[in-house]
Specification:
Number of helices: 6
CATH class of the largest domain: Mainly Alpha
Strand content: 5-15%
CATH topology of the largest domain: hpI Integrase, Chain A
Order of helices and strands: HHHHHEEEH
CATH superfamily of the largest domain: Intergrase catalytic core
Distance between the termini: 59 Å
Structural class: mainly alpha
Largest sheet: 3 strands, antiparallel
Radius of gyration: 23 Å
CATH architecture of the largest domain: Orthogonal Bundle
Number of domains: 2
Strand order of the largest sheet: 1-2-3
Number of strands: 3
């Protein structure tokens, strides 16, 4: 709900700036901004999406039963790296150093705006190698 209200505030502010003037404002005040002034926003708590140890077996069985091998590998990668979904979706093969077993996420792609280096286990290296598809070289005939 908070995201909806933030979008609404942005739209009202945009419309007020675009179509109103100081002499003739489009609206007197942005109602959503008043929520901030009065501290009336619903407090959003960070998700605690941790899978408890006792539920890992059930989670793993569910992931293993997925039809898509790519989806299974993606979920395992998320679990074993602790990376965010959005960051993981934007990964590039150039970030993976198979020889030194390190994944380097550039700062532009992280929420913290800092480069992140992640050591890769043998399991993750094998999983990534399985997913890595080298471009086929087409011969010029």
């Amino acid at each position: 709900m908070a995201l909806v209200m933030k979008c609404l505030r942005a739209l009202i502010n945009f419309a007020a700036d675009r179509f109103g003037t100081e002499d003739q404002p489009l609206i007197k005040s942005n109602a959503v901004t008043r929520l901030s002034t009065h501290g009336a926003w619903h407090r959003m708590r960070p998700r605690q999406g941790i899978i408890p140890d006792r539920r890992l077996k059930v989670w793993y069985q569910a992931v293993s039963s997925l039809r898509s091998e790519v989806a299974r590998d993606f979920m395992l990668f998320l679990l074993l790296t602790g990376m965010r979904v959005g960051e993981t979706k934007r990964l590039n093969w150039s970030y993976v150093d198979f020889e030194n077993k390190i994944l380097t996420v550039p700062r532009e792609q992280t929420k913290s705006d800092r480069e992140h280096q992640l050591p890769l286990t043998e399991f993750l290296v094998a999983l990534l190698k399985k997913r890595h598809v080298l471009p086929k070289i087409r011969s010029m005939v």
